[in-house]
Amino acid sequence: MQMTDIILKKRNNEELLKEEITYFIDGYVKGIIPDYQVSALLMAIVFNGMSSQEVADLTFAMMNSGDVIDLSSIIGVKVDKHSTGGVGDKTSLVLGPLVASCGAKVAKMSGRGLGHTGGTLDKLESIPGFQVEESRDNFIKQVNEIGIAIVGQSSNLVPADKKLYALRDVTGTVQSVPLIASSIMSKKLATGSDAICLDVKFGSGAFCKNLKEAKTLATAMVKIGHHMKKDTRALLTNMDQPLGNAVGNILEVKEAIETLKGNGPEDLVELCLQAGSVMLMQAKIVNNQKDAIELLKNNLQNGKAFKVFEDFVRYQKGDLSYINDVSKFGVAKNVIEVKSSFAGYIAKIDTENIGIVAMNLGAGREKKEDKIDYQAGIIIKKKCGDYVKVGDVIAILHTNHSEYTNEIENIIKSFHLKKEKVDSIPIVYDIIY
Amino acid sequence: MQMTDIILKKRNNEELLKEEITYFIDGYVKGIIPDYQVSALLMAIVFNGMSSQEVADLTFAMMNSGDVIDLSSIIGVKVDKHSTGGVGDKTSLVLGPLVASCGAKVAKMSGRGLGHTGGTLDKLESIPGFQVEESRDNFIKQVNEIGIAIVGQSSNLVPADKKLYALRDVTGTVQSVPLIASSIMSKKLATGSDAICLDVKFGSGAFCKNLKEAKTLATAMVKIGHHMKKDTRALLTNMDQPLGNAVGNILEVKEAIETLKGNGPEDLVELCLQAGSVMLMQAKIVNNQKDAIELLKNNLQNGKAFKVFEDFVRYQKGDLSYINDVSKFGVAKNVIEVKSSFAGYIAKIDTENIGIVAMNLGAGREKKEDKIDYQAGIIIKKKCGDYVKVGDVIAILHTNHSEYTNEIENIIKSFHLKKEKVDSIPIVYDIIY
């Protein structure tokens, strides 16, 4: 088999065989096939796409390029949830304990990455003492005992994706549905859960800029799941405003705790109920959405969800006194109210911009080496559809930086007001099976 | 400027600026831009093409990546001719001396390459003693004195093309009109002639498989010439059968000599008259095709063209006694008549196959290191439109190999006969200005 022939085949829009895709992935990971041939193939895939069979074969080959985790010693149905990422997305912190409190098993491995705020691992690590490294045995034991564990990915999880992603990043081949879908799904499948619930976000603060793009990506990923005989479902959710009110690591942990105690912001609660009901059906704990939502609502109100969160923090060596008295987290040196200079209904929030401001305040990483300031972030006080008077506080910035004039200006610029009444934005648009 | 942005721009089908193209070519030649970014850009060009301004800018940047030859000290109009390559293509051997005998100046630099037979340089080197390396001063002096010199390219001619071609070869990006056109034209323009006559061949023995492809490529190259203010014209010529009768280095030199003496095969003579008339008009020696053809015909008959050929061989240290007595070249050990087992009119000759047989007999190079056997080759005895009886000789193989059964079979398979009368194939289909 020759890599040049494989490139030519894709260039000529012919379907690649499973053995050709496996040859390419294996050869690339082993260093036999050079970057320059792979980047040419990737660009041909950008233009000609891939059939659902090809994407499944690619995902399978990528998944098998490293460790594939065996979770069979965990009793019960293991459900995993993955979000394509958004601003203020603390869903996993709530949803994990919540569905575990209902009987589903959440054995989650998370990656780190660049972003406006930290990822799930960073948010958890903002709780003093919290450990995201665990032995495989302890990880499995913990899930069997309390229903949930969230740890860092093993370093040998899908090495093909690490190498491919680094190459895609510098060769203009990031934006490609088959490449994005196989990247996400190879990692999800390698971590061994029985069912996968995807939260595909769209809007100004998300990777997919509109509903159509999100639907295309979600459909591709669900199809991969079906090819692999994994129950895979996807929610299409809105990211045209930050999720909930908090953006930033400790701020989001606090909001997650409030939500687990039944006092969460409306959109975050709604997303957790919708995604949670999908996961409970996948876990075969209930067989309809109505029962699922009732069970989930109860566990948010009766303390069961929060109880699992406490167990989870304790098992992973987090200091529970912070959870029980969140004032212990302290606040950033500077807490600045941003006030509106106009009156009207909020029609649009430039969410990507909100994320960039959060990062500039210290909450996220631009480069891998950057350190996160767990205290930094933003509390959004007004959301789309809300009416704002002149002088109303629209957001509160938290930062340990001494200079933040640009950030204030940028927040003001991110809120677009209209004279006429504007509807609030629903969070879940569709669910793809 | 970032190479990733340039790739993304081309991926998104936006037009690249001259400075972006120059940045890419300069950076690549200097080794600053890696192969993997270049191959991704090349694949994006394969899919999205290039505007004629982009192709001109690419050609200009490539041309300037190495030496650009200054021929201004040659008196008269320097006309260069380039063929995209075919089987039995000895046109330069005839056309060079012929147009020089009419007053045009031919200061030609040729490259080597892989192929069914050697290139022009190899054919010339089959004349004992012939030198294709000359100092720049001697090269210019020779053209001023006898009107023609054909030498090897300087090693620093268009290094960008060498590097790009090697990469294209292994990344499935050879077939692309802007990339082919800029590759050819950058070399032609770097060798400094005033006018360029292109012979773009199409058919089973050519790079372009049909007239449409040839027209597209020719048009792209002529446009590049216009952008560069060089008089560039292109003939579209047929390669659905070998050109003339001889295929192989010494065999082709002998046929060229016969043609220069006025006894050439019809299609080769016609091509030389048509291309020659274009070149004489480009050299402003005549101002219409009728006068050009009359002049060319006269010089083939009155010995003037052959006289220039003799001068040319003598100036470049070739042994003239071989030219004056071609029997001195000797013949290959095995000369095998291939006879037809059927009767009918020849409708089609699989010319690429004929070329491969010639190569297998020893006449060409498959790999760079391969040595050429100058004596090896094929004489085609019947061409399209000819009637053949059972037992008629259709071709004669010349080889120093002792095994050639497959080659005989392959020749027979290459001739497709029909019961009904078939027209002969014209050689020149169109001329593009």
Architecture overview:
Two copies of one chain form a homodimer. Chain A is an alpha/beta fold and 433 residues long. Chain A has 17 helices and 13 strands. Chain A has helices spanning 3-11, 18-29, 35-48, 52-63, 91-101, 120-125, 136-146, 159-169, 177-190, 211-227, 249-260, 266-282, 289-301, 304-315, 320-324, 351-361, 405-414, and strands spanning 79-83, 106-110, 148-152, 195-202, 231-238, 246-247, 334-339, 344-349, 377-380, 387-388, 393-399, 415-418, 428-432. The first copy, chain A, has a four-stranded mixed β-sheet with strand order 1-4-5-13, sandwiched between helices. A four-stranded antiparallel β-sheet of chain A has the order 6-9-11-7, with helices on both faces. In chain A, helix 10 links the parallel strand 4 and strand 5. In chain A, helix 5 packs parallel to helix 11. The longest helix of chain A has 17 residues, at 211-227. The model of chain A has no long low-confidence stretch (mean pLDDT 96). The interface between A and B is medium-sized, with 25 and 25 residues.
> What do the pLDDT scores of chain A average to?
96
Oligomer: homodimer
Radius of gyration of chain A: 22 Å
Number of strands of chain A: 13
The secondary-structure element order of chain A is HHHHEHEHHEHHEHEEHHHHHEEHEEEHEE
Task: Estimate the helix proportion of chain A, in percent.
Answer: 40-55%
Poorly predicted tracts of residues of chain A: none
Number of helices of chain A: 17
Distance between the termini of chain A: 37 Å
Strand order of the largest sheet of chain A: 1-4-5-13
Largest interface: A-B, 25 and 25 residues
Quickly give the structural class of chain A.
alpha/beta
What summary fits the major beta sheet of chain A?
A: 4 strands, mixed
Strand content of chain A: 15-25%
* C-alpha geometry of chain A: globular
